[in-house]
Design goal:
six-stranded antiparallel sheet, Rossmann fold, elongated, Tumour Suppressor Smad4, 5 helices, alpha+beta, 17 strands, 253 residues
Length: 253
């Protein structure tokens, strides 16, 4: 396969490997490519997925970072065959609409999660509504997040949220260091819902909203839903499909 475009993070290792791959396969503009190979870690892979929403190209990641949960192993040999045999996974992003205290409305997409986080020393107070019905009148916490299935193994898992299989059509809603109600551990929601977070006492307890790498500070209301009109395709080696990784992560000790 010669119709490959390569993109790489700014890390020295990724740039070194980019030079080697371009020397071997050539430098192809995105507009002429049929597949994109992303060199870096999971963070750069997320950036690549966002960029590919407007190009419609499948993305094959090769790890030049640390964890590399969304990445395949790096090797130059047999790359064309690996791309041809790769398994395809379709991901849909969450769409965040955040309203600030100044009345500004900011929209952003997230393939991992949308999180609300306290900005100052005092805990945040957040009301949570699902499809127009208040489900939690007041959550006092460091924050709260809603994740995609693919993102359920990231920040969500670190906050002790559940891992969700890709085929489950569920979105984990997970508190971050909940103080009241202390025993609330979150919820699993259908992927069709709209979740609204209203920030209480927003002046005294300011909150930031983050969708992947887009941060909006001093928010007073955040709406989140899965946007099925948008998708990207991620490619994985046959023995390292994302669905298998998500299952395997649940047995990691």
């Amino acid at each position: 396969m010669s119709d490959i475009a390569f993109v790489a993070s700014a890390s020295p290792l990724a740039q070194q490997r980019l030079d080697r791959l371009v020397a071997r396969f050539g430098a192809l503009p995105l507009k002429h490519a049929k597949v994109v190979v992303s060199l870096g870690g999971d963070g750069f892979m997320l950036e690549t997925l966002h960029n590919m929403l407007s190009h419609g190209l499948p993305v094959y990641g090769m790890n030049c970072g640390s964890v590399g949960f969304l990445m395949n192993g790096y090797t130059e040999s047999g790359l064309s065959d690996r791309l041809a045999e790769a398994q395809r996974t379709t991901l849909h992003p969450l769409r965040m609409q955040a309203t600030t205290a100044q009345g500004e409305v900011v929209e952003a997409l997230a393939f991992n999660e949308v999180s609300l986080l306290r900005q100052l020393r005092q805990g945040a107070k957040i009301r949570i509504s699902v499809d127009g019905r208040v489900r939690l009148e007041e959550l006092m916490c460091d924050g709260v997040l809603i994740a995609t299935p693919a993102g359920s193994t990231a920040y969500n898992l670190s906050a002790h949220g559940p891992i969700v299989p890709l085929s489950a059509d569920l979105l984990p809603l997970t508190p971050i260091s909940a103080f009241r109600p202390r025993r609330w551990r979150g919820a699993l929601l259908p992927s069709t819902v709209e979740v609204v977070f209203d920030v209480l006492e927003a002046v005294k307890r300011p909150v930031a909203a983050v969708a992947d790498f887009t941060e909006v500070r001093d928010v007073v209301r955040v709406l989140v839903h899965e946007d099925r009109s948008l998708s990207v395709t991620v490619l994985f080696d046959p023995d390292q499909a994302l669905s298998e990784r998500i299952i395997a992560e649940q047995f990691t000790v």
